[in-house]
From TrEMBL:
It comes from Spizaetus tyrannus (black hawk-eagle). This is TF3C4 factor. Residues 6-397 form the Transcription factor IIIC 90kDa subunit N-terminal domain. Residues 488-541 are annotated as: Disordered. SUPFAM superfamilies: WD40 repeat-like (SSF50978). GO terms for biological process: transcription initiation at RNA polymerase III promoter. Residues 507-516 have a biased composition (Polar residues).
């Protein structure tokens, strides 16, 4: 808000002011006075917001976090389980305001100095974030040095401040840090005491429209236009649209915007729902020839207490609300000729978890699970002494619904539907077989269209089946082992020992032996409970081993099919982007020979492609060489390369190059490894290296 020395002097002046309206306001406001002296420290987070998928360097989400001391930062998951802060937006925005003398436009009249308490308050409120929300990914035009235009992905982050202003940040993707910030524009909303923010995104006749929905603690809700330059196919409103204007003192707690299709009007529409006190305010927005049609109303009689959290399933438009008494309501929108109505039913969490208090809910991306934050409720009319916060998961779909959705999915990416695959996984692990209807439906899909997505889905099912057939481990896999291999000192040659040492060693061995015996006993019990029934004779085990070998063979066959399909894609890229007898770093000849080595594999497309490539290579082989001994690395295995001296290098599953470096990447499920792109790599190889895992669709770290 100003130079450090001047700010410190002003704080001391306001704290010791004779006027109680100044001194008490200053001392009690944690925005001005974050240290708080006797007050508890400002630790933790006020709010967090996830970006859409595909915004960071790994193709995953960015996290915008607002701390209790009003600092807004953006974090990314660069390596597995490692989060890194990329940028501090509060600091950057503060520097911009300082350079502009705390004026939003050049036409603004200069205000008072920092010593004036009202100016001190104004400078704080204009950069104290209340909420922030990410937009969808949009495309911008970038002009290259040779005057060619290329499409560059970008994402917007809207930040709502205490004084009602909204800063719209534009970031170029992938977001890497401060250098990826394209622009920052400030919009004046004109709303007093803003409480919540949401993006309004609407598609009409292949034209995307966008705006910002802002709610107030006093009740009003309105949509603001957002004007952006150089955004391809982007449109906004001409003027603000008021959705609710009554100052009825019902604070807007949460806003969700859901795109839907209107079955009667035969066009797309936008449903905006907002939690206001114990009610749900809804507004249906529809663009017709007459202009923008707005229908709004309230749903009452849902909760006896104010709504503390609201979430929406964007797949089917279902809205979920909860109050602190452990009651969750499911609201299903049903279209009528004019607008719509809601059917709602009660979900009593007390029937599932006992007496609980709810603090928040969220629905998974494909609507398979509802996550609920709970603490213990009242017992015998008394509140619990301690609060233990837990995240509970409630399934919203059956296994059959999840399987059908996966088979008919337009996304065709297992990683993006991980909540649905989790339901399928649970069912197969429990029943120890793949249901017949799912197997038949999947085989039909593979025969009819042959998309690699269905092959990956088949691989996923076979792997889970193989896992369910295996004997359960006696120890918990994630728990670290603290046992060290100890021997008696007397057993060591040339070393003496005392009686105490011997007794101690013997007691350790005895305790370990008893633990082992206990573990063995537990192992037998676990095996009886978890694994398939096994007979005592050897003959009973043989069918199980044969079944496992059969599943293993099926897994290898599916993996080989997916590998060949990806090899064809890589060879296609090589053919399109290389000249005659050009040496690419990809082992092209080895991949061609590997594809043709199996006599049973007869793919006409692959044979034609390989014929063209070999003609282009003009009898050149361009083999890879071992970096340790300079020997040739033959292409005999898709997973690793072994030279004649026995040096083993792992192969990149995206380009089939040998990873001859100490660092490489792995996919999230540790299926495959990939090398890092190098500055010498052409653009098409870098594009190949950005792809997900060919077996499980997971991103690569």
């Amino acid at each position: 808000v100003g130079p450090k020395k001047e700010v410190a002097e002003c704080k001391e002046k306001f704290a010791s002011s004779v006027d109680p309206t100044v001194s008490q306001t200053f001392m009690l406001d944690r925005v001005f006075n974050p240290e708080g002296k006797s007050l508890p420290p400002m630790r933790g987070f006020k709010y967090s917001s996830w970006s859409p998928l595909g915004c960071d360097a790994n193709g995953r989400c960015l996290l915008a976090a607002l701390t209790m001391d009003n600092r807004l930062t953006i974090h990314t998951n660069l390596n597995r389980l490692q989060w890194v802060q990329l940028v501090d937006l509060t600091e950057i925005y503060g520097e911009r305001l300082y350079e502009a003398s705390y004026k939003l436009s050049k036409a603004d009249t200069p205000r008072g100095d920092l010593g004036d308490f009202s100016e001190f308050q104004r400078r704080h409120s204009m950069q104290t974030p209340v909420r922030m929300e990410w937009s969808g990914i949009c495309t911008t035009q970038q002009v290259k040095h040779n005057n060619e235009c290329r499409d560059v992905g970008s994402v917007l982050l809207a930040v709502l401040f205490e004084n009602g202003n909204i800063a719209v940040w534009q970031f170029q993707l992938p977001f890497l840090g401060k250098e990826s910030i394209t622009s920052c524009n400030t919009i004046e909303s004109g709303i007093n005491s803003p409480s919540v923010l949401s993006w309004w995104e609407y598609e009409h006749n292949n034209r995307k429209m966008s705006g910002l929905i802002v709610g107030s603690a006093f009740g009003p809700v309105k949509i603001l236009p957002v004007n952006l330059k150089a955004v391809k196919g982007y449109f906004t409103l001409r003027q603000p649209v008021v959705l609710w204007q009554e100052m009825d003192q019902l604070p807007v707690h949460s806003i969700k915007c859901i795109p839907l299709y209107h079955p009667y009007q035969k066009c797309s529409c936008s449903l905006v729902v907002a939690a206001r006190g114990a009610y749900v305010f809804w507004c249906l927005l529809l663009i017709s020839k007459a202009g923008l049609n707005v229908h709004n109303s309230h749903v009452t009689g849902l909760h006896s207490l104010p709504i503390v959290s609201m979430t929406a399933d964007k797949q089917n438009g279902t809205v979920y609300t909860c109050s602190s008494d452990g009651k969750v309501r499911q609201l299903i929108p049903i279209f009528t000729d004019v607008a719509l109505k809601f059917e709602h039913q009660l979900i009593k969490l007390s029937e599932v978890f006992g007496s609980v208090r709810t603090h928040g809910i969220a629905v998974s991306p494909c609507g398979a699970y509802l996550a609920v934050i709970t603490t213990e409720g009242m017992t015998n009319g008394l509140h619990p002494v301690n609060k233990n916060y837990q995240v509970q998961f409630v399934t919203l779909k059956t296994f059959e619904e999840a399987a059908a959705q996966l088979l008919e999915s337009s996304v065709q990416n297992l990683f993006r539907q991980v909540d649905l695959t989790d339901l399928v996984r649970w069912k197969i692990l429990k029943d120890k077989h793949i249901p017949q209807f799912l197997q038949e439906a999947l085989d039909k899909k593979i025969e009819s269209c042959g998309s690699t997505y269905f092959w990956r889905f088949k691989l996923f099912l076979l792997r889970i089946l193989y896992q369910s057939m295996q004997k359960a481990p006696s120890e918990v896999m994630w728990r670290p082992s603290h046992e060290d291999a100890k021997i008696l000192i007397s057993d060591s040659p040339g070393m003496g020992s005392t009686e105490d040492d011997q007794e101690e060693g013997t007691s350790k061995q005895a305790s370990k032996q008893s633990l082992c015996d206990t573990g063995k006993g537990m192992d037998i019990d676990d095996a009886a409970d978890d694994s398939l029934p096994q007979s005592s004779d050897i003959g009973g085990r043989e069918p199980m081993e044969e079944k496992l070998l059969e599943i293993q063979a099926q897994i290898e066959a599916v993996e080989m099919h997916l590998t060949r399909e990806h090899m064809k894609r890589v060879l296609g890229e090589v053919y399109l982007h290389t000249w005659i007898t050009e040496n690419t770093s990809i082992p092209t000849r080895g991949v061609c020979d590997f594809l043709m080595s199996d006599d049973g594999y007869d793919d006409r497309t692959a044979r034609v492609l390989i014929g063209h490539i070999l003609k282009k290579m003009n009898k050149q082989t361009f083999p890879e060489h071992c970096s340790l001994c300079k020997e040739i690395l033959p292409f005999t295995d898709r997973k690793q390369a072994v030279c004649s001296n026995g040096h083993i290098w792992l192969r990149c599953f995206l380009t089939y190059q040998s990873c001859q470096s100490l660092v490489y990447r792995r996919c999230l499920l540790h299926d495959s490894i990939a090398r890092h792109p190098t500055p010498e790599d052409p653009e098409w190889i870098k594009r190949l290296l950005q792809g997900p895992c060919t077996f499980c669709d997971s991103p690569v770290f």
